[in-house]
Design a protein that fits this description.
This protein has about 325 residues and is of the alpha+beta class. Helices cover about 50% and strands about 20% of the residues. The longest helix is centred in the N-terminal third of the chain and has 74 residues, at about 65-135.
Length: about 325
């Protein structure tokens, strides 16, 4: 019982102390707020005195209104500075974007010019390809082209401005040009296969310059001439190639077999090669010979060097082409590629 009374007295004392402390705390706060209110409620007179002899103006207010006025003025000033700074930043960003836009437009104009040049090149390509295919007797693949351009050529590509405008037109042009080039791959591949199949024909027929690397010049052509030694008219049965010196390499003008290696008073050191299709070639007035009878040679292989042997007036190569028993003009068989 006594212990219960002690607990109850302790509880009552504790609650009393807490209550007294809270009352003191709120009393202090109340007195502080009262002082603040009294300060803010103090009257203030603001007098405006002009430098001239005009009438002075006075404004009566309190501290609270003055403080709120300063706070409002500071807020307006700060807002003005903030938004003005943002406006300046936005203007700079707009200037940067306008400059980038001008550069983009310039690049777009350049792209359009290049696109126009590409279309012009495509026109030339189409004309050349059509002519080449016609000469070779190869189909231009019109059926496959119809699915791309509608009529088997570039007509719809070159009228694509009716389909789009601005950058859309350029996009449409490039798409149709890409489709056309994809369709042109097949006939071009056919040309390649044809040339590959005919490659052996080009190497079996004499058709290249008989002096290595194509150097020198024709000093006397095939046909009727005045003989440089006898001064009489005669038929020159070959073509003379000169480099004004001795020792330049002479090459076989086609694949073949060496059937004669000789040296006589007229042609000096000479070589005769037998080719396919009944064609023979003669290389005369050589300084040296680098092949032997019976050797197989390939087009472009060195067989000797230019010399001054036999009846000559200077170092040169005398070159003849025979088909069967007939002598023909070598110029007709040079660079036929």
């Amino acid at each position: 019982m006594a212990r219960t009374r002690r607990y109850k007295n302790f509880e009552e004392n504790f609650v009393s102390r807490i209550g007294g402390g809270l009352a003191s705390f709120f009393a202090v706060i109340g007195r502080g707020l009262a002082k603040v209110f009294r300060v803010f409620d103090e009257k203030v007179t603001v007098m405006l005195v002009p430098h001239s002899n005009g009438r002075a103006f006075s404004i009566q207010t309190n501290v609270f209104a003055m403080v709120m006025g300063f706070i409002l003025l500071g807020g307006i000033t700060g807002s003005f500075v903030y938004f003005n700074k943002r406006a300046i930043g936005s203007e700079l960003e707009n200037r940067r974007l306008r400059a980038e836009n001008r550069e983009t437009l310039a690049s777009l104009d350049e792209l359009r010019d290049e696109n126009d040049n590409l279309l012009k090149s495509a026109r030339r390509f189409q004309a050349s390809l059509s002519t080449t295919l016609s000469l070779l007797g190869i189909s231009d693949g019109g059926s496959s082209m119809e699915g791309v351009t509608g009529n088997g050529d570039l007509s719809s590509l070159f009228s694509s401005q009716d389909l789009a405008s601005g950058s859309l037109q350029e996009t449409q042009d490039v798409r149709q040009l890409t489709a056309y080039l994809d369709s042109a791959v097949q006939p071009v591949e056919e040309i390649g296969r044809m040339l590959e199949n005919q490659g052996s024909l080009f190497t079996d027929i004499p058709n290249i310059w008989p002096v290595k690397n194509g150097i020198g010049h024709i000093s006397m052509s095939f046909g009727q001439h005045i003989h440089p030694i006898t001064k009489q008219w005669y038929i020159h049965k070959g073509t003379d190639f000169s480099t004004w010196r001795t020792g330049d390499p002479v090459v076989a003008t086609a694949n073949g077999q060496i059937v004669s290696v000789g040296n006589d008073a007229t042609f000096g050191l000479s070589v005769i090669i037998k080719h396919k299709y009944g064609i023979y070639t003669r290389y005369a007035h050589l300084n040296t010979i680098r092949v032997r009878k019976g050797d197989d040679v390939t087009q472009g292989q060195i067989i000797g060097t230019i010399g001054n042997t036999g009846i000559t007036t200077g170092p040169h190569l005398h070159y003849e082409v025979h088909i069967g028993s007939s002598v023909v003009d070598p110029a007709k068989y040079i660079n036929i590629k």
